[in-house]
Amino acid sequence: MKIVSLLPSSTEIVCQLGLADKLVGISHECDFPASITHLPRLTSSRVDYSGKSDSIHHSVMELLKTSVSVYDLNLELLAELNPDFIITQDLCDVCAVSFDQVQAACDEYLDSKATIISLKPKTLENIWDDIDQVAKVLNVTESGSDFKSKTNQRIESIRNKIKQTEVPTKKIITIEWLNPIMAGAMWVPEMIEIAGGEALLVEKGGLALTLDYSTLETIDPEVVIIKPCGFKLDQTIRELDVIREKIPWKKWQAYKNNKMFLVDGNAYFNRPGPRIVDSIEILAYCAFPALFSDFKNRFTNDIIQLQEGLELPSKHT
Predict the structure, then answer these.
(1) Which end of the chain is more exposed for a tag (fewer CB within 10 A), N or C?
(2) Domain 167-306, CATH 3.40.50.1980 — does that match?
(3) Residue 26 contacts residue 110 (beta carbons within 8 Å)
(4) Which residues is 262 bridged to in the sheet?
(5) In angstroms, rounded to a whole number, what is the distance separating the alpha carbons of residues 225 and 27?
(6) Does a cis peptide bond (omega within 30 degrees of 0) precede residue 33?
(7) What are phi and psi of 174, to 5 degrees?
């Protein structure tokens, strides 16, 4: 069996299911687990994602206006690898190579017709269903069932602890992009609900919302999690001035009560794969740090709690 994964999330799914040794090619963004990073990379981006959020946004919008794909697929390498299975997505042309690109490449460049597994997650249930689908197609249903069982246990543990302690619901907003400001949606509202919160402004399964300053002034979140899509912590840190400028943070309870956090958006929240359950645990800690203090140690390198003036704590300066 030879598998090509064109998504970071699907690469993590394949590895979670115990098939890492069957991967023969990955996308340019696949970086977890470390054991797969040596594999050939079949995609590249026309956008420089190492820049600031405003320039990235502008570049993407300009490409979409011209109907040019944000991503390129290495057709010669795909033909050389000649996989049995290709995992891609049919949800967001900004996130990865489009389904149409993959289908056209298979039709024209592969000797034997590969099975395309296309993922389209909008809700938490969709994510779990996608993992089930991959497990079934790749004939590892037992591994899929084992993951689902352990995931359910972790989620129920959070729900039960919140229910037993009767902590008050927290008003929460997660920021998915910085310039312009966007609020995370899709599966995020469900994650917030599991973690004992109420998602502000966004709905389950909906698209991320672009928000102006005046709209942000109408809400008063108690917890703010800033986790730009695709950004590691160091990249978000470089835009602290943008965060201070674009949101009315001084008016929010979250700031007054020291509940504003930076989280690694590249690893968590925005990848609809196995680490979504880790992201729920991060949410639970940010909302109720005393109740979920054990999560702090587990994710200590992935979370920064901003200090007065939205400054970094001393260990990050």
Answers:
(1) C
(2) yes
(3) no
(4) 226, 304
(5) 27
(6) yes
(7) -110, 135
